[in-house]
């Protein structure tokens, strides 16, 4: 049966141009061509195989990761890949490694926070990987509260040096990826102290290991922090611990773009506005949202294909059973996640544009939109990563028992994904930042200050707090304007209710703390509105390809109505819709699922993932699941011998009732 | 600082008798004494250590599991432990092993389905572990739909034997625990065929491996199915694959309590009613609900203690930061889970009673309550396992970054727990069974048939579909009768709405399929009502101990109001409460959290878990988290050398720009 496509029948049912949808998904014809070529290149490279990962010990896995990183770098240079191609290459290698932090945090941070001179010195070294950098911020006792970091960098005017020190156990750097074993350098964050005065947290470039023999430099204690969730997942990464015992670095290794320490030890702000640094944060969070749609789409691709392969119940007289994808319970759990993958893709695309836009504004010294951009990226990071983590686990459950096997790919995808809910801002902490911004925006409404960007709907507060949804029949729920207004009404009413509750407190900070749970819910409502509205905006563009736009319209409606159903309490309690309208939305949702059904496989094919990248027996492109599950089983080390290791010592004496005298 | 209790201050704040709460949690003073003694025995046994599990390879882990099982059996015999003590012992060993299936499935199934003669033959062998049994039901292509199993057992009248065969790849047995490497025998399920006629699925005792050398018997292909979620978790279990190539077993190895095959090959029902077999299912699911509260309480214990240790933000002028447990966002996520642990414990306790009750009724040939009991156990299994799986992951997130470390205990707890959502009935399939029963109950209301047990509230349908919740102020939400009526109204109104929607379909099965998502939601509403009502019933008992009942009352209210808040859409759309009342419930919830706060640590201490059993650095009883996290890190194999294995091959040439000629 080699080469047979078990899903061919499913593919033939598609009502749209899959190739054009691939272009929409990845962003452009050019991006599709490049990514497709590089994905196949990676998939065909035996050094980059992934299917043996879960059988490795931690040490083997880590060594294998070093090998892949070196091999990847070699191939990138040999093939003279462009930066775009190299970035796709690293993406498809799909194994967390020190290179992620080097390219994703160390380099961008020096670019953003280093002076021109510093950039000239350090970036060429980093670009050529003559040094390996990591980003050492989080400490054992300090994560979200960056201002609470304890590591100190004390200026010594005698030697023109900073002395880095870890004064307490809780000040040990803890978590930075690449730090444990690989990095030669770090951007390390420490409280700057000059002349006995604490100037708060600043970044410093610190060499950690000798470039000759990789041994830690004097005063530096460094190591790996140990096993993490999953058996592959992030265990390929050397998240590290680092302690400084009065380590000296030259003064010019403080990153001095926005603030400097002079030769005399004076702390001075430069003329570069601090706000410029936010650009990096917007960039990083924009990447995280894009990654969310990628992770989610992988999980959905696996679960959708397997749901078409798996059959259960529904056969009469020994006939063939029903494909589980045909059950409404399966559809109502799976299809909203498929729609979410597309929704997050488009909001991520929009964030990319927003980053470019805000960067231009910052460079023109226009900081006016920064708070809104900051709130919006923080909120979308929170919303999309939380939803994606939950969705991956839901997809695993949708694969029934077999989803629990490592070779389904889903356990590892979950384990490798979930840190996204915590790193770069804990998701709840971020929602509260959004809420703070929303409360400020609401409080300024009476003054006539016009809300900008994603909050501009708040400028129509008067209308939105008294408007009534005019859905009367199921089809009314297909109108974008109706959906949008319901989401806007719900979001603003929740914000205003919070603001009113807050106003009853004499101490605003106490009120904020007391009501934080409600505030977080209001922030979620605001962020869901952004996702829906950006999806709707996307559909206002010209989208070529037979049936492509129709499919996207269907997905957009599914996403929106699913969010309404899931958060019905919000919509009803704010009076944004009525119970009857909620019930109509739910009815509409069911018929949208039926419309999606014949296109389901083609819609996940449009992600254009290779079997190598998916890494799932259940999600194989050809749907040939069972023979491959069976074949994979025999590869487990436990099957190397028919009688297991330990039989003589621990099973035989037990069965023979001879345990009494055994030494166990 | 050895021996210092960092949580002493928290413990001193408790407003109730913790020792009495321990009794309530575990069920009796006697159970507390026994479980406490055995827990300490296990914790102090060096063979039973767990902290090194995640560093083992699969083979090492499995061998270690065999060792623990043999050692445990030896100790149980040496110490002449009673069955109660032995069962606590196995519980605290806390590592999935073949013994779970031997004691939990193989033995009970022979008891339930074997004739007296069969029991006399097989049970003594099983009790003395002279044979190791497993339960081989699920097949590669068949899980939920037991009637779809493909394995055949064909009676051969010439030799008076059954011939077991695996006719297709998808008929391979797949998943049974203990099958892969350890079991000598199985209860295997196969389609019984006599004289060319298929009599459906029956159970057979089949020897798999030689008792002399443990080699598979002729015609049997058996092995392990490979790695599963997590790195420890269920990888200590040899979930197996099994194929029969015309394997012959004597006729008397068909389990013949309810149906027999005669010497002539005639299939005859015995006079034992088939319904008796349901007793085993009720028993197993009752155990699963009890396990849910145990798993949930472990996760909550870890997250609660660590939330009291962890501090973040809120310090002014460098003072000490705020304990994260004092944040309302933390409380609103954590405390409902603490309440759920108690709620599930009490509903589990009640299910234990129900099992005894139904067993007595079955023995008296009274099958009247069986459908209700079946629906109720299926629904509670689904509800509690789904909630627990989600809650463990939520607890992990509540521990921030450090929850992602294996030694937090939470990743492994999650990975080892989640299969409970799938085994013994997929949770969604079970909800649909409940829904089917609810629809039947509703349809019989007009005929005057009185609903029994957990559905008896449906007898008051007339009142419940038109009653109005009369909550006017926050305190009204503390009245059990008010809470109960709101839950009853919501549940019955959702059921009746489904029934009405169903009645619009000419084909009921089609209607059921189309509306299955709504039906599942109605089933959840019904099951949540059961949990709430059993908690309220528990509080009507006499509960000794200073402040114990008050704490439980608080937890009960938190559970109920949290469910209302989370499912507000249901309560509002059915008109069971108003938006204003929903908002009051939420306000009340906040003040209940404040009441719980000083008792939080004591309430998790009442679970009486040893540090060994918890297996979490973050959840340590003494709260001494950071020094222990730091110390644990250095034990990782990656830290055996300062310079990592692979440096010479993969890092040095890269840094020195000498990759070009390297062989990688």
Provide structural commentary.
Chain A has 664 residues and is an alpha+beta fold. Chain A folds into 2 domains: 107-272, Beta Barrel (Butyryl-CoA Dehydrogenase, subunit A, domain 2), CATH 2.40.110.10; 278-605, Butyryl-CoA Dehydrogenase, subunit A, domain 3, CATH 1.20.140. Chain A has 23 helices and 11 strands. The first copy, chain A, has helices spanning 8-12, 18-26, 29-43, 58-78, 83-93, 98-113, 116-127, 278-309, 328-363, 370-398, 410-417, 427-444, 461-464, 480-503, 508-514, 516-539, 548-566, 568-573, 579-596, 600-605, 611-614, 625-633, 647-655; strands spanning 133-136, 152-156, 161-165, 173-174, 185-194, 197-207, 220-224, 240-244, 247-250, 259-261, 267-269. In chain A, strand 5 and strand 6 form a beta hairpin. In chain A, helix 2 crosses helix 3 and helix 8 (278-309) packs parallel to helix 10. Chains A, B: Pfam families: ACOX (PF01756), ACOX_C_alpha1 (PF22924), Acyl-CoA_dh_M (PF02770), Acyl-CoA_ox_N (PF14749). Chains A, B: Keywords: FAD, Fatty acid metabolism, Flavoprotein, Lipid metabolism, Oxidoreductase, Peroxisome. Chains A, B: This is Acyl-coenzyme A oxidase. Chains A, B: Residues 17-132 form the Acyl-coenzyme A oxidase N-terminal domain.
What would a concise description of this structure say?
The structure is a homodimer of 664-residue chains. The first copy, chain A, has two domains: 107-272, Butyryl-CoA Dehydrogenase, subunit A, domain 2, CATH 2.40.110.10; 278-605, Butyryl-CoA Dehydrogenase, subunit A, domain 3, CATH 1.20.140.
């Amino acid at each position: 049966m080699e080469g047979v496509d078990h899903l061919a029948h499913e593919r033939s049912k598609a009502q749209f141009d899959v190739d054009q949808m691939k272009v929409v998904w990845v962003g452009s014809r050019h991006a599709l061509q490049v990514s497709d070529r590089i994905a196949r290149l990676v998939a065909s490279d035996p050094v980059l195989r992934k299917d043996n990962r879960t059988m490795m010990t931690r040490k083997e896995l880590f060594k294998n990761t070093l090998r892949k990183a070196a091999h990847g770098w070699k191939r990138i240079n040999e093939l003279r890949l462009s930066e775009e191609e190299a970035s796709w290459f690293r993406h498809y290698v799909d194994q967390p490694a020190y290179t992620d932090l080097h390219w994703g945090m160390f380099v961008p941070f020096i670019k953003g926070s280093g002076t021109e001179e510093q950039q000239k010195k350090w970036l060429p070294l980093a670009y050529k990987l003559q040094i390996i950098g990591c980003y050492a911020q989080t400490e054992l006792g300090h994560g979200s509260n960056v201002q609470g970091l304890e590591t100190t960098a004390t200026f010594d005017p005698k030697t023109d040096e900073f002395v880095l020190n870890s004064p307490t156990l809780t000040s040990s750097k803890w978590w930075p990826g690449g730090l444990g074993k690989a990095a030669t350098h770090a951007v390390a964050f420490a409280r700057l102290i000059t002349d006995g005065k604490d100037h708060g947290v600043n970044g410093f470039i610190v060499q950690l290991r000798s470039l000759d023999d990789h041994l830690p430099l004097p005063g530096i204690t460094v190591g790996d922090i140990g096993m993490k969730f999953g058996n592959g997942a992030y265990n390929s990464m050397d998240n590290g611990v680092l302690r400084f015992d009065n380590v000296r670095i030259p003064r010019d290794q403080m990153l001095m773009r926005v603030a400097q320490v002079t030769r005399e030890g004076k702390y001075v702000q430069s003329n570069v506005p601090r706000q410029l640094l936010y650009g990096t944060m917007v960039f990083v969070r924009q990447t995280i949202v894009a990654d969310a749609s990628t992770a989610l789409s992988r999980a959905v691709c696996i679960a959708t294909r397997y749901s078409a392969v798996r059959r259960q119940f529904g056969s009469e007289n020994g006939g063939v059973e029903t494909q589980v994808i045909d059950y409404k319970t399966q559809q109502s759990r799976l299809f909203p996640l498929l729609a979410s993958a597309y929704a997050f893709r488009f909001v991520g695309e929009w964030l990319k544009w927003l980053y470019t836009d805000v960067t231009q504004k910052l460079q023109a010294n226009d900081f006016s939109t920064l708070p809104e951009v900051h709130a919006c990226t923080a909120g979308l990071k929170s919303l999309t990563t939380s939803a994606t983590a939950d969705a991956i686990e839901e997809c695993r459950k949708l694969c029934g028992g077999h989803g629990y096997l490592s070779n389904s790919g889903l356990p590892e995808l979950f384990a490798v994904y979930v840190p996204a809910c915590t790193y770069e801002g804990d998701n709840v902490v971020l929602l509260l930042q959004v809420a703070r911004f929303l409360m400020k925006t609401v409080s300024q409404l009476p003054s006539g200050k016009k809300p900008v960007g994603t909050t501009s709907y708040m400028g129509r507060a008067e209308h939105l707090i008294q408007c009534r949804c005019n859905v009367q029949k199921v089809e009314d729920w297909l109108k974008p304007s109706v959906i949008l207004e319901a989401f806007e009404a719900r979001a603003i009413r929740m914000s205003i209710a919070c603001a009113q509750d807050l106003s009853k407190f004499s101490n605003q900070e106490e009120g904020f703390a007391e009501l934080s749970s409600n505030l977080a819910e209001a922030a979620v409502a605001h962020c869901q509105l952004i996702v829906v509205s950006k999806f709707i905006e996307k559909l206002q563009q010209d989208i070529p390809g037979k049936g492509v736009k129709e499919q996207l319209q269907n997905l957009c409606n599914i996403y929106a109505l699913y969010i309404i159903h899931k958060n019905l309490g919000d919509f009803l309690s704010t009076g944004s819709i009525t119970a009857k309208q909620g019930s109509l939305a739910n009815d509409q949702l069911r018929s949208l699922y039926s419309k999606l059904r014949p296109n389901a496989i083609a819609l996940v094919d449009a992600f254009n993932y290779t079997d190598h990248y998916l890494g799932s027996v259940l999600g194989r492109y050809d749907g040939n699941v069972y023979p491959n599950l069976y074949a994979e089983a025999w590869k487990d080390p436990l099957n190397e011998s028919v009688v297991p290791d330990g039989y003589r010592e621990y099973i035989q004496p037990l069965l023979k009732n001879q345990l009494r005298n055994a030494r166990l």
